[in-house]
Amino acid sequence: MRHRRVLRPHLLPQQRQRRLLIPLESQERLVERIGTGDELEVRLDESIVHNLTKNERYALRPLGDVLPIIEAGGIFPYAKKAGMLK
User: How far is CA 71 from CA 5, 39, 77, in A?
Assistant: First the structure.
């Protein structure tokens, strides 16, 4: 069974002006591992969630083809960069 969690990732430098909601999927069930008040850091480049409160790391499933869109700062900047828009 796959577990889906929506977490707010740290913004990449290109995303500082655009906020994106990115659904991320963990490789394990995290509801018992993460508690209210825990401070989390999402590292997309490493595909992990770091629980800063408990100093634990949890693996995320790869983002696949959506990662270049995120790195570009969204769908429209990606399309411009890829030459799909002028």
Answer: 20, 24, 9
